[in-house]
Amino acid sequence: MTERPDLSPKDRMQIERHDIPARSAVIRSMDFNEVSLGYSQALAMEEAERCLDCKNPRCIDGCPVRVNIPQFITHLAEGDLHKASESLLGDNALPCVTGRVCPQETQCEALCIRAKKGEPVAVGALERFVADWAQDHLDELKTNVSPDTGRRVAIVGSGPAGLTAAGELARTGHAVTVFEAFHAPGGVLIYGIPEFRLPKDIVQKEVDRLKDLGVNIEVNAVVGKTWTLRELRQNFDAVFLAVGAGLPVFMNVPGEELKGVYSANEYLTRVNLMGAFREDSDTPVLHGQKVVVVGGGNVAMDSVRTARRLGAPEASIVYRRGKEELPARTEEIHHAEEEGVTFELMASPTRIVGNEEGWVTGIECQMMELGEPDDSGRRRPVAIPDSEYIVDCDMVVVAIGTRSNPMLTSSEPDLKINEWGYLIVDDDGMTSVPGIFAGGDIVRGAATVILAMGDGKRAARAIETYLGSVQDMIPAAVAKAKADNEGATSSAP
After folding, report:
1. CATH assignment, 249-402
2. Cα(403)–Cα(421) distance, rounded to whole angstroms?
């Protein structure tokens, strides 16, 4: 450890922000290796010196999981990577993930006091550096796990919300079992986010660390089919539903049934989870030569950049608003442009065109202009009459959002849902069924990884309170439930 230089706030303000190094766009657009390289220790410590260590650190208020940002950055600036790591891991169950995919620029960094007069501290890059260092030195770090409480908690879904809740609850001494429908844990972290943004071995290491805390993960377990939610409630003291919102939304325009049309969900799952980009994969995926991706969010950027890596000489985004309104992260848009992606802006698809064999040959778009603001606060796109034109393509990926999958919610009629099919919860995240909590996209709709993690952390705190308030009733209730369940045809988990 080194003593942090005694720099004045004025001195720190003179230090310019360090960009995170990245691989050459020409090279990286031809493979699935990670784009960003991360800071060296020297760069990380220099960037940490830019932190003003504010008396009222507003950056914490911008973090959905309430990471004590100044604390880990101060330890980093002092060269004490052990304390920096222990601080970060104590606040964040998946720091290697959030250091890569969290939109810090609109959250913690947006509230950084330095942002008022220049560039904020690169919190995301510093988080990634410390998290990666911690992952390589776990045997040197202190882990605080409370004694076994004798309570059992079931978590349905191993995405960011589920894994975060699992880590928090395991540290407080509860026996946690995560039920994952796919054959590998990680949820959207493995099926939705491409390797070049979030390597799968990084996700696996985070999962393994949670397992070391005592988290048990059951894969190929479809709650609603393999086991009912009622069975889980009978055999666990509390349940947290974190199944996401993975049902794709389509445009409902003519031609969407043509061959060569994918939802982004299917396209990315084939490539990311099933490894369809590998020559030895049993999962097929189309390698379009002229690919159009409809949408402007991070999923759209992931899809179009994936198409480039699968060999598409032409890959473009079609979006109904302008560049300033693109909802994707600025970094992802910048990387896409560097990699040769083109943007067809102020355009909205009206139909997909095909040939006699039923294959996509183009997409018809109508030019748009921005009108009055809509409910989201953004100016509403308005169609310009008689402005239709055709964009030639042989593959279309629809990336305009997802909604809740009704398989789980329909299996338990006592769960109340809203008009869009999302679970209704109270301020503590509890559903209409006592002891069953929910969070993430199944409650809020498609959102970011970090917001789901925030829900998972809050749910863990609420479950902890719930288990404490009903601790005297739980043993008798569970015993009665088990007795009532005897003779059931389905085996209990």
Report:
1. 3.50.50.60
2. 8
